[in-house]
Amino acid sequence: MRPLAHSLAALSAVTAAPLLLGAMALRRDLRVGLRQRLGLLREPGAGRVWVHGSSVGEALAALRLVDSLRASGRTVFASASTPTGRQMLRSAMPELPSALAPLDHPWCVASAMSRVEPTLLALVETELWPSWIAAAKRRGTPVVVVSGRLSDRSFPRYMRFRRLVQPTLRRIDAVGARTDLDASRFVELGIPESRVAVTGDLKLEPPEGVATLATDLVRALSEVPVIVAGSTHPGEEAPALEALVACEREGLRAALVIAPRHLQRADQLERELATQGRRVRRRSRLDGVPLESGDVLLLDTLGELSAVYAAASVAFVGGTLVPVGGHNLIEPIFAGCPVVFGPHVHNVRVHAELALGSGAGTRVEGTEELASAVIAALRAPDDRRARVLAGQAALAAHRGTAARTTALIDRVLAGG
């Protein structure tokens, strides 16, 4: 690092230290894996492709690329920005070397890069970290954005600060964009068109196998139809519970599974649900007794939501009734379950269009419409199955995204 850059890094470290210490005091998740966040990685990585995804959804997408890369003979190192994302990586592939991503400070990323020594850095979706990308380029390490997206919300912000982000964008060797629209947006930001290709959305890549439920979950979910509210945020559990109440008023038997997006909310949710007169069960403390109609199961574990979707009659995906932008809408369809979602889908617009276009998804505006959609799904099992099959057929057209992305990485590594 040049003397001026070294001085600026030192100044930024001193300036940021009080802010970081304050944030760590307030947020436990920032204290987890502090050595890794500082770039002090222990995992072996020399000669590996480093694949990075931000949180759980991006980590799941990254794993599809990891499978393809390893099938082509490459070794891989993976990282995530959040503890839940890292836990997902470790749960799904215990044998895969993985860690928390370093803080985007020149010293932290330089330390991490020198320990991992990757042959290429693959960033999932929109992980455009300036110091990390600069550190890779200083080492001669190519950088590829995979499953690249620029959402309706993020693209105007990038355009507003285009002059500031262009030095980072110019260092990117290639972009594998999700769609033609994403590709055109990367080009508009200043990435040469010759470096941008449409490879598809890793989240839309159909999985090779079907997730299986653990034995105790099979028993717990075996007696009544199941409604799942997945990846929920504050303000979305109450509408899900109201949908269960509406089913009861209609004489329909059902149990509700709630999977909060952030597991640290589980204790609070358990208390809130108990005040509604519900018998609340925790996944982490299942006792082998099947759920009864009206029960609520709180899914307070990672890595099991896909399998729970497969056991459900209908699923609501969160981040859509509140202005978060939505989470993985097609995961339930993969698993064989129709999906319901709210109006806020700007982060998953392509997924929403596919779900609606195939008939496997239903968009609702609020609590009453959510309840109506859930009741309709429970009352018409044959229609429900037909809708899911149509959705799965639409998703089959996206098979090959991981292979196309791997081919792009191979071309960059070959100097093409």
In words, what does this structure look like?
With 416 residues, the chain is of the alpha/beta class. The chain has two domains: 33-205 and 399-413, Rossmann fold, CATH 3.40.50.11720; 215-396, Glycogen Phosphorylase B (Rossmann fold). It has 18 helices and 14 strands. The protein has helices spanning 3-26, 34-37, 56-71, 83-92, 106-116, 130-138, 154-160, 162-170, 180-189, 215-220, 237-249, 266-274, 305-310, 331-335, 349-358, 367-379, 381-396, 401-413; strands at residues 49-53, 76-80, 98-100, 120-124, 143-148, 174-177, 196-198, 226-232, 255-260, 280-282, 296-298, 314-317, 339-341, 361-363. A seven-stranded parallel beta sheet has the order 3-2-1-4-5-6-7, sandwiched between helices. Helix 15 links the parallel strand 13 and strand 14 (361-363). The two termini are 28 Å apart. The model is unreliable at 2-25 (pLDDT under 50).
